[in-house]
Amino acid sequence: MPIEDFLPSRSVFQDYDKLSFDYVPEELVERKDAQQRLTTLFVPLLNGRPQNVIITGPIGSGKTALARWFCREFTESAQNRGRAVRHVLVNCRRRRSPSAVMLAVLNDFAFFPDRGFSLSEMLDSLEKHLDKGVDLILILDEADYMLRKSGSELIYLLTRFHDENKDSKGSVSLILISQQQVQNMVEPAALSTFKRGNQVRLESYPRDIIATIVDQRVDLAFFPGTVTADSVDLIADIAGEKGDARYAIELLEKSGLLTDEKGAEQVSVEQVRAAKAMIYPVFDEQTVGALDRHQRFLLIAAARMLKDSAYTTTGDVEKEYQAVAEEYGEEPRGHTQLWKYLKDLDSLGLIEAKVGQGETKGRTTVIRLSIQDMPSDVLIDRLTGTLS
Ligand SMILES: Nc1ncnc2c1ncn2[C@@H]1O[C@H](COP(=O)(O)OP(=O)(O)OP(=O)(O)O)[C@@H](O)[C@H]1O
Ligand SMILES: [Mg+2]
């Protein structure tokens, strides 16, 4: 077949780039306090006085996004006030030595050859660029990687830049980003330039904020109506457990790609489950293999009910279970026994039963498939295979 036949004939994506890791939306969801704080800390730079700030917070809490958003907006505001502020982001997981970091910085200004210049030669070169009246904000992202490998020498040198170059028309400010506290990794002489309180701490996102972040990306990146509300809910549930916005956006992106691959019109919960399977494959055959027949019937029933929706109820699953048992020519077990099975499946982590989700379902026990790594039709296939 020609490759044209394999390419998607239609797409749910209106603007795929809005899902890329370095895209930062105009508006950050629910980060006003942090935005305000960071901006306040940098006000003195509008008068040429450099600042050093630390941003910490768990995975996917928006540290990098916050720093990028701030630098983009601040640079523009400074420009309007007649100051040339410029920012460079260096990822220290990829560049762990002072000279690797400096090379990235210098190359952002102009081509700089990778030919074993000493650190002090590189700092001199930076000084020449800044002396044209440029205030640099250097974001050292995932700074702990550099600190662990090479210590805080570069941070020390950069925070001393002002003292060393008193007549310079420019300056260097630092934003250190790390998941963990870095204070204990920075030598006291360098740390003293980080004023106490020059720290922004982000907490992981509550589930509902994750849902809003996903909604925002859906609007930006997808054609209207191509992502179901159930899918957004499911993504928020899955990524909300850890409060990780990156995971949420990754799930959204993969779900969209899988939808295109299928040639479907809408991103449904099945695609979300499949996307999860691709990102974190943790299906445990042994656990499923240890279930008795009726527990498997029940799991098949739950999977069937969950084919097109994120949640189902115990009542619906019970009815479907009776049908499955009959298909296999067996007498369905009674209500009390089923309730016990449901609890077993829940404690094994195969399903998740919780009370009263959403207005439409009232206060009944609802069930979610928590073999989240597996689309329900794949799960049904596998289970059916073990029963014949
Ligand atoms: N408040 C927000 N509003 C909109 N999008 C957000 C928000 N917070 C984070 N995001 C998006 O979520 C994703 C993850 O955020 P980010 O990369 O900033 O997390 P992080 O804290 O730097 O994580 P890590 O510690 O793994 O580097 C990015 O795509 C980012 O644009
Ligand atoms: Mg980051």
Please tell me about this protein's structure.
The structure is a single chain. The chain is an alpha/beta fold. The protein is built from 17 helices and eight strands. 49% of the residues lie in helices and 11% in strands. The chain has a five-stranded parallel β-sheet, sandwiched between helices. The longest helix has 18 residues, at 63-80. The protein is elongated. Residues 357-361 have low confidence and may be disordered. The chain binds adenosine-5'-triphosphate and magnesium ion.
* SSE pattern, N- to C-terminal: HEHEHHEHHHEHEHHHHHHEHHEEH
Largest sheet: 5 strands, parallel
Determine the oligomeric state from the structure. single chain
Could you tell me the CATH topology label of the largest domain: Rossmann fold
In percent, how helical is the residue content? 40-55%
Largest sheet: spatial strand order: 2-3-4-1-5
Please provide the count of β strands.
Answer: 8
Write a compact overview of the structure shown.
This protein is α/β, with parallel strands linked by helices and 388 residues long. The chain has three domains: 3-11 and 205-279, Helicase, Ruva Protein, domain 3 (Orthogonal Bundle), CATH 1.10.8.60; 31-201, 3-Layer(aba) Sandwich (Rossmann fold); 285-387, Arc Repressor Mutant, subunit A. It contains 17 helices and eight strands.
